[in-house]
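Quick note —
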Amino acid sequence: MISKTVVLKNDTGLHARPATLVIKEASKFQSNITFIKGTQESNAKSIMGLMAMGIKKGEEVEIKVDGPDEKETLDTIIALFESNFGE
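Predicted structure written out below.
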């Protein structure tokens, strides 16, 4: 299991389009991916879970990955955050 904390820089937060990008990328991997914000946790492959978290600009999110391809998985998800989801 590996994890990293990131800060959401996207002005509009983690709304439907970026959440869909997360799910699209996350679904390519076998590892389990969990987003943690405060006391909230969500499976990163669940649109409802990600949207319910209501992650806003400037908020910290811990990304926890566990599985056979965890390093590649974490690197891919971090890259999405660092690119501001192409927005």
